[in-house]
Each structure stands twice: as structure tokens, then as C-alpha cells.
Design brief:
The protein is built from one helix and three strands. The chain is α+β, with helices and mostly antiparallel strands. It has one domain.
């Protein structure tokens, strides 16, 4: 059984269309403090995957 994480991902589109869509993502803790930010270009699922990897690294570091 997996444990629930208190970290969450916020993803928003900042411009572009199609394959050139720009995304800004943030990994936040339970209180809403931003722990890590980044950006990605391309489809939404690829931007989310990038943010998910950053979230998993923060969880592994014990943050």
C-alpha cells in the first residue's frame, strides 16, 4: 500500500499552442509553500511528468 504525499503539483499554461505550448509547474507542500518550480515545452502530459519526477525526488530526499 502506498502512502499519501503531502506534496502537490500545480501546472499552468503560460503560452504557445500545440507542440510549442509552454507550461510552468510548481511542487507545493501542504501549506502551499513552493518547494520547486520549473517549466516545460510540449504536451501537457510531458510537462506533468517532468513535475512528477521533481516531486518524487523531493519525497525521496525526505522533504
Amino acid at each position: 500500500m502506498s502512502e499519501q504525499s503531502s506534496l502537490q503539483i500545480k501546472l499552468r499554461r503560460t503560452g504557445g499552442v500545440g507542440a510549442n505550448t509552454n507550461w510552468h509547474w510548481e511542487v507545493q507542500d501542504a501549506s502551499g509553500s513552493v518547494l520547486k518550480t520549473g517549466s516545460a515545452v510540449g504536451p501537457e502530459h510531458k510537462a506533468f511528468a517532468t513535475a512528477r519526477i521533481a516531486k518524487e525526488k523531493l519525497e525521496a530526499a525526505g522533504k
